[in-house]
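How a chain folds remains the central question behind the approach discussed here. For one protein, we set the task of working out the structure tokens from the amino acid sequence alone. The sequence in question and its structure tokens are set out directly beneath this paragraph.

_____
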Amino acid sequence: MDYEPRILALLGRWSVNRFIHDQFAKDYLEELLQPYGEVQAPCRVAGEVREIDVLFTPAAQQVTNLATLGLLGKFATNPAIIEPFRNPASKEEICDCLLKLLEVRGALQREANKNKIPIQELDIPKLWILTPTASATVLSGFRAVQGEDWLPGVHFMAEYLRTAIVAIHQLPQTPETLWLRILGRGRVQERAIDELKALPSNHPFQQTTLELVYNLRQNLRVNQNLEEDDRELIMRLEPLYQQDREKAKLEGERLVVENLLQIRFGSLDRELLAIIEPVLALSPEEFTPLLMQLSREELIARFGRQS
């Protein structure tokens, strides 16, 4: 009995941390996939009120565009059930995922029987179980083998089960796997975040994903009982977060300066554009009255020399 409070505390910590990461994974996958089809996250299925983490149905006109998401996009070219795990998926958790897939298949079969039409194999979702690692024992227990013509780390079960166990930490560190490695742990996830940060600023998913990662950081920070991986993740994200906030602040101030100059003097010519950087060296409290009060000639005389 003396151990009971300690055990409950450990279970509570594990449950809270898992929930935070699970919610991040669902939000993240939903953001990446929603431009390309219908996403349900979570999706309830019949039986004992089971919830699918992410159920995705691609839009026909968007399938070719899924290449933007690399290996994740390849998973999503057909209907897909995606079940991400923060910790290595146990055999019991994998069995639970298989039950969800079979229940979805059963529902589709009943609908096909009702409409007296044969069920189309391509309409049956494939199940992708995303786990940071997968032991040889687990893989062999489910007869999951490395897929032919697939990257290392993608292990397929028997054909009719339509299921693959994706061991994220076995995936090669290439741009094609980036969007899956974001859901890894430890150094795998940290490196993926570094690669995400290094993407061109106009990449369609960079800023959205960074914001989700920063939200994860904030949610983890409020929890006092963190695992070592989570503490390291917060430390890694802190400077990136501060850099982004500073960049956003400077971009906002630049927009204010440009708008004030345009309101007062119309279009921005070469001379006015040249004074923007020197003006931004001042705080908004300092530059705002100057931009409102000084004439064009006075502004150029004051800040043009600095440029």
Observations:
- Strands lie at 37-40, 43-45, 50-52, 54-58, 80-84, 126-131, 145-146, 154-156, 163-167.
- Residues 46 and 299 are 70 Å apart (CA to CA).
- Residues 249-303 form one domain.
